[in-house]
Design goal:
6-stranded mixed beta sheet; single chain; 2 domains; Rossmann fold; 11 helices; globular
C-alpha cells in the first residue's frame, strides 16, 4: 500500500507462510499496513484470513518474516499485546462473570484500560451491569466486548468477523461506534468480514486473499477507479471482447463486461458504464479470466 502515513509500518510481512500438514494455508504472503488506516481483508471461507490474523496476533507459528508494531509476534507476544486489541466472532468473555466483574478484571490486568470510558459507552446501551455474561444476548455480548476494547489505548485493533450473527441495527451501531469513538490517525484497524457492503464505506485500504495468497492490495480510492462494468450495447460485443474483460455475464438479456485499468472514455463507446462496489470487484477479481 502506497501513498500513506510515513514511518514504521504497523504490520510488515515478507513471505509469510503457514502449513498444516500437507495443507498450505498461507503461501508466502507479502504486505505492509501503515499507521492510521482501516484495512479490509476480504476472502472466501478457507482463503487464509484467520490464519494470517493469528500470525499477526502471535497466536500461531509461521514461516517468513513478520513484524507487528516493531515486535516479532512469535517471540514478543506479551509486549505486543500491550498495544493490540482483538474481537472475533468466536472470542468469548468469561460467561460466569457479571458485566461489572468483567470490567473489574480488565482494569486489574491491563494498565491501558480506561474504566470511565467503558462505563460511558455501556451507559448508552441496554447491557445490564449486574447480569452474567452467559445471560446476555449476542448483541449485548458484542457491545460489552466493544466497550472493553475501545477503552484500551491500543494502537492496533483486529476484528475477525466481529458482527457475524448480529442483526442489521447492531451491525450499523458497531461500525458507527468504531469510527466515532475509537479510530483516529494514530490507530490502525484490520477487519475481516463477509458483510462487505457494510464496511466498504469505512475502509481506507483493502486486501483480497485467495488460497493463501494476496491477489490484490490497494487503497480504496484507487481501487474504485480501476474497475468499470459495461452494459454492452447491441452490436458491440466483438469490440467489448477485444478489450479482454476480466469477467463477463448477462444482465437483462444484455452482455456485461468488467474491465480493469481501461480508460472510461474508451469503454463508454461500448455501452453504459458504471463503477463497481467492493463486493462486485471482489467477485470479478476472484473469478475473472484476466487474473
Amino acid at each position: 500500500m502506497t501513498g500513506q502515513t510515513s514511518g514504521t509500518p504497523v504490520v510488515e510481512a515478507r513471505g509469510l507462510a503457514k502449513r498444516f500438514g500437507n495443507f498450505t494455508a498461507l503461501k508466502g504472503a507479502t504486505f505492509t499496513i501503515p499507521l492510521g488506516r482501516i484495512v479490509g481483508v476480504i476472502g472466501a471461507n478457507g482463503a487464509g484470513k484467520t490464519t494470517m490474523l493469528n500470525a499477526v496476533l502471535g497466536l500461531s507459528s509461521y514461516e517468513g518474516e513478520l513484524r507487528v508494531l516493531g515486535h516479532d509476534p512469535s517471540k514478543e507476544r506479551p509486549a505486543l499485546m500491550q498495544d493490540i486489541c482483538f474481537i472475533s466472532d468466536v472470542a468469548t468473555l468469561p460467561k460466569w462473570m457479571k458485566v461489572v466483574e468483567v470490567l473489574d478484571f480488565v482494569e486489574s490486568v491491563h494498565p491501558k484500560f480506561d474504566r470511565a470510558k467503558a462505563m460511558n459507552f455501556l451507559s448508552r446501551t441496554k447491557v445490564p451491569l449486574e447480569r452474567k455474561v452467559r445471560a446476555l444476548s449476542k448483541g449485548m455480548t458484542v457491545q460489552l466486548h466493544l466497550a472493553v476494547v475501545m477503552s484500551i489505548d491500543a494502537k492496533l485493533l483486529v476484528l475477525d468477523e466481529p458482527t457475524l450473527g448480529l442483526d442489521i441495527m447492531f451491525r450499523k451501531q458497531f461500525y458507527q461506534s468504531l469510527l466515532e469513538e475509537y479510530f483516529d490517525e494514530e490507530r490502525t484497524v484490520i477487519i475481516t468480514t463477509h458483510q462487505v457492503e457494510e464496511v466498504e464505506h469505512i475502509l481506507s485500504d483493502v486486501m483480497f486473499i485467495r488460497d493463501g495468497e494476496i491477489v490484490l492490495e490497494a487503497e480504496m480510492d484507487e481501487l474504485t477507479q480501476q474497475f468499470i462494468e459495461v452494459l454492452v450495447a447491441p452490436g458491440k460485443e466483438a469490440e467489448a471482447m477485444a478489450l479482454k474483460p476480466i469477467s463477463k455475464g448477462t444482465t437483462f438479456g444484455k452482455s456485461t463486461c468488467v474491465y480493469k485499468n481501461i480508460d472510461r472514455e474508451t469503454l463508454a463507446k461500448l455501452g453504459e458504464t458504471r463503477r463497481l462496489g467492493l463486493a462486485d470487484i471482489f467477485v470479478a477479481t476472484m473469478t475473472g479470466e484476466g487474473q
